[in-house]
Predict the structure.
Amino acid sequence: MSLKKKTIGGLMWTISQQFSLRLITFGVSVILARLMTPAEFGLFGMISILIALGSNLMDSGLTSSLIRTPNAVQKDYSTVFVINLVGSVVIYTIVFFTAPAVASFYNQEILIDIIRVFCIVFIINAFNGVQKAKLTKEMNFKSQMIIQIPSVVVGGILGITLAYNGFGVWSLVWMYLLQSFLSAVQHWIYSGWRPDLMFDKETFLYHFNFGYKMTLSGIIATLYKNIYTVIIAKYFSASQLGFYTRALSLREMPISNLYNALVRVTYPMFSSINDDDAKLKVVYKKVMEQVVFWIAPFLTFLMVVAEPFIRLLLTEKWLPAVPYFQILCVAGLWSPLQAFNNNIVKVKGKSNLSLRIRIIKTSLGTIGVFAAIPFGIYGLLYFQVISSMFDYYLDAHYGGNMINYSMWEQIKDMAPSISIAIFTGFMTWMLDIYLLKSFSMPDLLRLLICGLFYGMFYLGSCQLFKLPATRELRQLIFKKNVSGK
């Protein structure tokens, strides 16, 4: 199968997987938000940095090295499996004994038991990390979709049942543990790969040489990404943290469906053509244009209808999250673009550079975060917008220059979609404020009318101005139809 067909096929299956998972997860989260309080979500948010750090340390970047290794063999896979498994036990042990210190930091004694139980997920995930990497390397995203959906559904049912019966934050703990366990079992079934429980020192050093730099970069990125959660949890209330984490998860809904799918597919795809800069630039440009074409209008629309959207889904008690959500949507536009430029750096084998970029981002960002604390939670949120734009500048400067695709050239290619999305958002806001809201229309009707207006206006404008992304989309659909005849 050609690279193009494999990529398109992988992308379709991955988008299907992401869309299905996000739809199910979103439905589960809406029900849980109605059954639980913002403070209970805030408690779980307090350990998010610990969870993310443990995952980074457990993996050590070795699975990323497996994906980029052209001719990985059983020795490679088995060695990484053993290291991941041993590493997960070590990390869990450290987390187990440091749980009281974390609980003391937040002044929440209940976190001791929550951390010790939830972080068993590190060991569970170690059992399927290599299988997942192998399926990704083979671009077998169909199997990954079949694996993830039942795991999320069954776990979600457990979480809702526990929340309904008053288990509070423990509903989230047991839900994620069950999801991880079911995912691990199914990866063993569908991947067909089994470890030999062998360890080869030279193989380990080969993967570690690449992986440890990515791990350090990942740890720094995780610390910085979660610094807002830590600061809000420490200096503000659990309820405010709950509003922030819920707003963040809602923001991730439109981004993750397309963004995660494309990141997973483009990394192995970029790796396969990393020696051809001209081809890499063409492919990257098309991917970036499609991402902005879909994400910019979606985020803009959600900003406009944030109030009826959140009230309809989560009820009145979550309305304080509305301004948080709107500001985070502005910051969210840059996240996919950062990741794609960073993927270029990784596939070029420049893990040293990736680490250096991450250190610069984190150092300046951390200074900015602490400088923003006196301005309250909104100071932190607005700084997140500034920080995300600066992070994109760094990634685009280094990653883009490697394939002769500068930041300014990227912005020029993105500008039409973003401009049309913003103008359409303004027109939709006028319609909602001066017509729909003034007549006290129900939230659902407001969302339907605004959505229909925004979609027609945006797509019509893109067609009128002949945006490259619309042409690429038509060609993809046309070719698919032709092949299916």
Summary: Confidence is low (pLDDT under 50) at residues 480-485. The radius of gyration is 22 Å. Residues 238-272 form the longest helix (35 residues). The CA atoms of residues 4 and 269 lie 9 Å apart.
